[in-house]
Predict the structure.
Amino acid sequence: MRTLPQHSEIHISIIIPCWNEQRNIENGVLTEIQQYLAGQSYTWEVIIVDDGSTDESRALIEAAIDGLAGFSLLTIPHGGKPVAVWTGIQHARGDIVLFTDMDQSTPIKELDKVLPWYPEGFDVVIGSRGSAREGTSLMRKMGSFIFLNFRRLFLLRTIYDTQCGFKSCRRQAAMATFPHLQYFSQETETAGWKVSAYDVELLYLFDRAGYPIKEVVVEWRNRDRSETKGKEGEMVRYLKESLEMVREIQRVKLSQLRGVYDRRESEQ
């Protein structure tokens, strides 16, 4: 079991990736985050990483955080969610980093359930949506059940929900693990909105490295209002996402069997 020391003057860095989130930003989510954090006794920072948005997201963020202490905006070329999160991690100063979605389907107040587990010796604490996912179609609930059981046959048998967009870890664990995601070795360009099931590999790498992981049930209600994440329809988008998740599980398992992770560790 691997544990990491605490030493940062900032307790937690909250990283929010953003790609064409105009409608969600207009919904007042950044105000919600600021109001919650303003009432906390610990030190914090919020790092928003705009992943090359093509709508009004960047301008809206700049206006929303203007004059707000502790908030910052980074702008990068479009590279996908893992790239945006990794960029935030590299700029983070907190001992703990939280990755949370702009739509705040899991509200920031759920940090109250996450942070108490770090003094208990955990280095990774992740949110779980459980089975009651308000605002989710029956089709997606059924798909989640199938995905869960398929994934558990091969990887992370003790983790219920790998895909919840509310994950936290020690920053040092993130710095040691993120660069080894195979997502960063792909040579194809990222175009448009692309769902990535990188969460599976990330949690597998955390577990493999011996970082203690705690999963806690958090509030989740679908609040995503964005209109630019796919116009092909719910069914087509769902099938594409499901196929990508299955491929991710297969890829991680095959890499494990082929010794890819063993070789990477020996090269460190």
Notes: Strands lie at 10-18, 44-51, 71-76, 94-100, 124-128, 166-170, 213-217. Residues 234-257 form the longest helix (24 residues). The chain has one domain: 10-267. Residues 10-267 form a domain with the Spore Coat Polysaccharide Biosynthesis Protein SpsA; Chain A fold (CATH 3.90.550.10).
